[in-house]
């Protein structure tokens, strides 16, 4: 199988052009290629496929083999992949995902994409649609207790579910202990991506993320979008802010005009090769 390894802020995936390659069991392949000792090493596997609804279709699988609806860092890399490899010459590309069709605006220099702005669509805030096991009309700053500590959690879906909490010191937060317990909390029937956020000021937020099915990653694009939305709902930030992740920065905007969330960030090719599967 021919592959390309790419990363967005250190959130790395193995990309396969399935207009040329056939991947028959992506759940098992994702686990194999993601292994950082016996495989290539990644946060998961991304397949780029033909689409009857858009320019291309993206399927993404976590390192544990589970399939996710969307990944903001991965979709930026898909945009770079199809443009840099001559699969399209358009600067605005539509990508079909399990979370709907996303519109990418590509910024290229010398024929290579360096920056991608993604229309992530409208945030989903109704708890039953996130989903959260709650009959409330919204789930904003609701208490959840883990290991005796209470977190005020705001639930947002960006096509996949997120639980956003605010803490004073994100660098020293015991994410490896708290993250998996938030992910599997019974309030979240499809599990959840857990973001823990430190507010620097109203235009700068610092976060770490425990991703559903992958553990802590260096960045999460949908998570950064959820953090911005949650911060606006909690009156902690402006509607446009820089989200600082372990792997770098993303600029997120929540438009008042169309209620869409826009994410801007880099996409980088690491290397390409072949693996026997």
From TrEMBL:
Class in the EC hierarchy, top level: isomerase
Site keyed Could be important to modulate the pK values of the two catalytic cysteine residues: positions: 162, 211
Record: active site: 71, 71 (proton donor), 220 (proton acceptor)
Catalytic activity: (2S,6S)-2,6-diaminopimelate = meso-2,6-diaminopimelate
GO biological process, one term: lysine biosynthetic process via diaminopimelate
GO CC, one annotated term: cytosol
Assembly: Homodimer.
Main localization of the protein described in the UniProt heading: cytoplasm
NCBIfam families membership: DapF (TIGR00652)
Function: Catalyzes the stereoinversion of LL-2,6-diaminopimelate (L,L-DAP) to meso-diaminopimelate (meso-DAP), a precursor of L-lysine and an essential component of the bacterial peptidoglycan.
UniProt record similarity statement: Belongs to the diaminopimelate epimerase family.
Gene from which the chain derives: dapF
Organism listed in the record: Ruminiclostridium hungatei (Clostridium hungatei)
Compartment list: Cytoplasm
Protein's name according to its UniProt entry: Diaminopimelate epimerase
This protein's pathway: Amino-acid biosynthesis; L-lysine biosynthesis via DAP pathway; DL-2,6-diaminopimelate from LL-2,6-diaminopimelate: step 1/1
Keywords, ordered alphabetically: Amino-acid biosynthesis, Cytoplasm, Isomerase, Lysine biosynthesis
Ligand binding (substrate): 11, 62, 72-73, 160, 193, 211-212, 221-222
MF term (GO), any: diaminopimelate epimerase activity
Domain of life where this protein originates: Bacteria
EC number per UniProt: 5.1.1.7
